[in-house]
Every structure is written in C-alpha cells, then in structure tokens.
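Worked example 4.2. Below are the chains of a multi-component assembly; read each line carefully before continuing.
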Amino acid sequence: MSVTLKQLAASLGLSPTTVSRALNGFPEVNAATRERVKKAAERANYHPNTRAKSLATGRAQAIGHVIPASTSHEIVNPIFADFIAGAGEIYSQSGYEMILRVVADDDEEHAYGDLMARGAVDGVIVHGPRTDDRRVALLAELGVPFLVHGRTSAANAPYSWLDINNQRSFRRATQFLLDFGHRRIALVNGLEAMDFAARRRAGYLEALAEAGILPDPHLMRQAPMTEPYGHRAAQEMMQLPDPPTAFMASSMIVAYGLRRGLSDMGLKLGRDVSIVTHDDELSYLPNEGDVPMFTATRSSVREAGRRAARMLLTLVTQPGSGPLTELMETSLVLGASTGPAR
Amino acid sequence: MSVTLKQLAASLGLSPTTVSRALNGFPEVNAATRERVKKAAERANYHPNTRAKSLATGRAQAIGHVIPASTSHEIVNPIFADFIAGAGEIYSQSGYEMILRVVADDDEEHAYGDLMARGAVDGVIVHGPRTDDRRVALLAELGVPFLVHGRTSAANAPYSWLDINNQRSFRRATQFLLDFGHRRIALVNGLEAMDFAARRRAGYLEALAEAGILPDPHLMRQAPMTEPYGHRAAQEMMQLPDPPTAFMASSMIVAYGLRRGLSDMGLKLGRDVSIVTHDDELSYLPNEGDVPMFTATRSSVREAGRRAARMLLTLVTQPGSGPLTELMETSLVLGASTGPAR
DNA sequence: GCGCCAATCCAAAGCGGTTTGAGTAATGGA
DNA sequence: TCCATTACTCAAACCGCTTTGGATTGGCGC
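Applying the procedure described above to all four chains together yields the following structure tokens:
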C-alpha cells in the first residue's frame, strides 16, 4: 500500500542509507542526488513510517494527554476542547503527534507511567490539577518530561507549569465590585478541590479581608460548573434574608445560569445585580462587542494550549532546560453585567 | 529506563521468543514457565514497546481523529469533546490509542492520507461531514478503514457511518409544534453546508409542507452555533411584522441564546413563545429534571462516540465486514419551553 | 528397545527506518 | 607520478518486538 524506504532506494538504484540522508538533509549527499531522491519520494508519495522511525531514533515524536472519563469530573468540559485545539496546532507544526487517553478516574495515575514505559510518548501534559495532586510527584519520580496546565500545592520539588493568575484575577475582580459599593458579594465557584478554584477563592477572600468584610458561608458555593448550578445558586441566594448584590462566577457557563436565575426573578444585570465571571474565550461562547455582555476576567485557554505545547516541546527537545513556568495575567474587561450597588 | 523483552528474557535464562509467547498467551509454553515469566514481567514493570510491537505486527493499534483548526468552523465545538470522550473509553478498553490531529482547514484532506501512509493509525473517524464532502471519496480510494460521524451526499459508493436521524427528528419536533397550533415556526440552524444541518432543515420543511405551510425565508437562519447567534436571531425575528410563535434550535447553546433574547423582551417560554432544541446531552449543559427546561430532541453524543469507536474497531479488525451503518433515533422530551400558540 | 508424536523451547529473519564505519572515485598539491 | 584529501555512497548493525521453522526432550505404543 505505501512505499518503503528500501523500495524507493531500489527504484533509484541507491542504497537506503543515501536515500535516508538525502531526505533528512545530511550534508554529505550530492545536491543532484538529493534532488533526484526528493522528486522520486514526492512522486511515489513516500512518507517514512512513524513507528519505524521512532523505533530507530528512540524518540516517539508524540505528546500524551490523559483525561479522566467520569462525567462527575470538572475536566470533561468545554475548556478541554479549546486547550487541545491550541496545543494540537503547535504539535502539527512541529511534527509531533498528540495522543489522547481517556481513562477511568482511578486509572489516571497509572496511565502516565504506562504511556511512557511503552515508549508511546516523549512527554505528557497534566490536566486539571487538584490542590492535593499526587500526579506531579509521581511524574517527577518517573523522570518523564511533563507540564501541568495549572498548578498544585502537593509538589515537593519545582516542576513545570503554565497557569493563569487565578488569585490576583479574582482579587482584582472582587475589588472592582467593592469599588462599586458592593458589600454582599457571592462566589459561585468550581469544585475547590481543583487548584484553580481554590486559588480563585483565595483571591476573593483576600479582597474581602482588605475591605474589612467577613466572608459569609451562605454566599460561597462550589460545584461542577454547569448551567443549572448557576441557575440554582442565583435562585437560592437571592432568597436569603440578606441577599447578595453581586456575583463572582467561575465560568461563562455558570454565569449564564446565574443570569437566567436572576432574570427569572425580573432582575436586570448591571442595574439590580452585578456579575463578574471568568471568560476562557471559548469560540462558541463569545463575550465580545463594544460592550460585552459580561464583565469578565479574560484569558484565552486556546492560547494557553499553544504556549503549554511549546513549553513542553522545549522540555522534551532540550533535556535539562529545567523547570519552565509561566504565569499568564488575565485582563479585566468591562461589560454590561456590572453597576453600582443599589 | 524501561525494561526490554530481551533483558527480561536474559534475566530469566529464557529466549525472547518464549517470553513473548508466554506473555501473549500462546499455547506452546509450559504453564509453570508462563507463570514465572508473568511474575517477572510484573515485578520488572515490563511493558512492551508500542512502536516495536506495531512495527512487527503491522498493526498500529491506534485510531486517528482529524479536526480542522479554524475557529470559524462548526466543529471545534462542545460536541467534539464529548464524542471524543465516548470514543476514547472504548479505545482504552480495547487497547487502542487515540491520536488526534489538529490541522488547518485546507490540510484536512491531506492529513488522512498522511496518517495512513506513515502507518500511524489503523483507521480514522471523519468529523463534521459536509453535504458535499470530498473526504469520503478520498478515503474510500485510499482503502483506509474509516467511519463517518454523520453522513454526506457526496459519496459515490456505500461507506460506513453512524448518524442520528436528524431529518425525522426535526420533522417530528416541528409537527409537535404544529399540533400545538403554531404556524409561524422559526428555524435557527447550524451552517447548512454541514450535513446534519441540511437534514434538519429538510425535516423541518417536510413537516411544514405536510401542514400546507409555505416556509418563510425570514424565519430561517443558519450560522455557527454560538450563544449570541441565538440571541440575535430571537431579537430580530421577534421584530418582524409577523413574528414567529415558536423556534426550532439546532443546539442547546443556540437555545440559550434564544431564551435570553426572548426574556430580554419580557417573553416567557412556553407561555408567550415556544422553543424546541436539539440536546446532545453534554455534561455541563444538562437539560434534566422532572420538567426539563427545554423541550428537546435528545441523543447522547457521548454514546455516539462509543458506538462509532466500536464500529470502526470491527471494521479494522475484521476487514471486509463491509460498510457498517447505524442510524440512531432521538427521543422527544417534553420540557417547559413549549406550549400552545397564543 | 525403537520409532513417533506431543510438548517445549530457541535461533534467526524480518518489520522500516537510522547510523556507524568503511570503501571508492575524483581532486589537488608536491 | 604519487599520495593525501575531499566528496559521495554503501554494507551492516541496531531499535524492540513477533513469527517462522526447526531442535530437543520425554512419554507412549508395540
């Protein structure tokens, strides 16, 4: 079905060695010969067999992504698709393959070691780190090049990660609401076992503390970030004796839920009640225009995917390039969902 | 770093042949020996090198998925993540790897041939088929085992696909609205170059025709399925001299947009205006409860992913098992978003 | 005691590339 | 004219596994 190097060499009356070198740009091959080989390869639609190549070179030319399968998890979420898309762009450009493994929750740790032991990948990206996540220590021990999308507190040594500044981001957004006179600010967060959610909470609490406001447990929630979750949070919190005048949401999806809950009660965003959300710039949930619908802390998760991929590739190709870290700042965009406290 | 078969064999005083056969369950190896080998393999944390294995066997033990990278496209959408998750489950169970390629739009066709020629995969799944899609003919010509998620009209020979019955689904949903007395029914569709959208449109038109209603171009829209798209459609259509009393939406996301647009105008779903949407059962956009928020044609895209993977695997492992096709019916679930026409 | 067969195990040849270590022809300098 | 280079090209080994085609051994029937 497909041509092999040997066949190609035979058809040219050359040795496999020469053909290989011609195609891989080695200097010791005659320019004329190289041209001839390249033409022939083109014509025969020759593509080197990936497996043979990586067997011979010892490099897999592939990066692994492991995602837990359970539906109860935060991570099979829209974020994931965009991040993957961003990372995939870079892999394609760099001649790397992306291999994705969907595994049951408890097999997750095992999956990384397995991928590496089988020589299937040169490095892995860790998704959805939890505050207390054993994977980082595990991977460090295995000696696998890896990069974490996010961070964790459970590492006992420096490691490579790419994260957004969740804490500062939410602190600043909370301050923004405080400046508008809001004092009852709700936090509708993702599961706080997830590192990103814990950091957002920390930023929120920090801003409240600075303003001398005691956090109210009734105004803080955590759960997987679905639309109905946001809806319920809005409904229930607004029925409190002392309801919030503003909400912080951990994702656009949750914010949509909040919005629906509030509008069901006849409340208008920006006038009666305010919302600030985090916006990952997902392609099908754009928050754009002259005046975006939501005031938001914004950061493109697709761009994060691109950067993460680039970082991991340098870790892979330049061993010992040490732990690489990058903290992306978010921007605070002003939208129609915020206004002064009533 | 990792043990090889040869090393393992040496440490046991056996030949690689015997160790290989012992681990792969061949009958001609002594039961005691097999046990001994298995124990040793376990202890040494031996995992056969995937690349070497597939080089030797000629099977890649991997399935390819190609997704176009452009943001303008329908396909980098939430659907994709859930479908992948479903398919990935099956691959993991079956010992297959999933390799994902994100490519620029115009490289898409090339990517399939490339994957196969390099021997990187045993088969591919085609995502987001368009009404007129050259990929199917291309792949058939290449002799690659493939399965289409959806269908296309551009095939000149039978091919394997898994699809939901979009046409019947939308026809039935439209009839449902007609039965409620609606006569002005809008269609807020995905891009109709996409096969699924074209079929939904056909179903919608069919139902209208049966009821003797002439379709009104002002009530039919197509675009990438974002939330703002739904919002705008609702706003603009409701300002028509003769506005619709009901909407058909192609996805939950669009339905959310419609809902927001309508509620902005003080209209209540199910009372003032009706919506029926298609619901892919995405995990973070659940449409559940005793009375779901939206009346919907429902079908789990995650389950579709599982089935598609199973089908492709049989195509791969049993060559000549002929074109396999499956048409999944959707269920019509009644929610709070529909009511009699006013 | 001999031949035959089943039960085990192994050496060696690939799979399709890369890479090391030479070999050959042409070139240039003395 | 001869030798040392330089420029190309190639044969063979290897990557880690599977698989073909024996080789060896012991038990069994006669």
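Take a moment to check your reading of the output against the notes. Chain A touches chain B through 63 residues (CB under 8 Å). Chain A has a mean pLDDT of 92.
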